[in-house]
Amino acid sequence: MVQFSFTAAESVLLGVERAKELLRHKYPFARLEDIFAEALKALLERIDPDRRHPPARAAAIPAQAPKTRNIPAAVKAEVWRRDAGACAFVGPAGRCGTRAFLEYDHVVPWALGGTPDDPGNIRLLCRAHNRCEARRVLG
Ligand SMILES: [Zn+2]
Predict the structure, then answer these.
(1) CA 116 / ligand 1 centre spacing (Å)
(2) Quick one: 78 and 120 in the same domain?
(3) Separation of CA 88 and ligand 1 centre (Å)
(4) pLDDT value of residue 62
(5) What percent of the chain has pLDDT over 90?
(6) Who is most buried in 29, 40, 86, 135, counting CB within 10 A?
């Protein structure tokens, strides 16, 4: 168990009280920890890429040649799963593994003929490694 303690704006209190009202049927005692757990769950379902790319949601990857550098959603989902939602850069110290500020990187840049619809040409990189690789490849 962990204990949280913080000071917040009155608007947060109003939000907590409204959430307690809305969740009264589920949590008759409206314990603060239950309300926060529900709020956190709802937030992560909305913003956490791990939850946006669940394994069962893999869609077919289109077979036609790409006309844009945009990476299809199905490719993004496959790459996200393959790279486990973490930076795939491997350096002398091993894999980076950062899980924040991730970007989809074309291994062979689109400008140099790399295709955006081949998961083998796309990888997850953190912002720092994506910039580093862009400088290395494109100069
Ligand atoms: Zn990285």
Answers:
(1) 20
(2) yes
(3) 7
(4) 57
(5) 59
(6) 86
Above 80 in pLDDT, residue 38? yes
Residue 11, pLDDT score? 94
Ligand 1 center–CA 86 separation, angstroms: 8
Q: How many domains does the chain have?
A: 2
In a domain, 5, yes or no: no
CATH of the domain at 88: 1.10.30
Whether 30 is covered by a domain: the verdict is: yes
pLDDT in tens, 78-137: 999 999 999 999 999 999 999 999 999 999 888 888 899 999 999 999 999 999 998 888
Residue 69, domain member (yes or no): yes
- d(CA 97, ligand 1 centre) in Å: 6
CA 131 to ligand 1 center in whole angstroms: 10
Which residue is listed with tokens 């303690």?
A: 5
DSSP code per residue over 52-97? HS-GGGPPPPP-SPPSSSPPPHHHHHHHHHHTTTS---EETTEE--
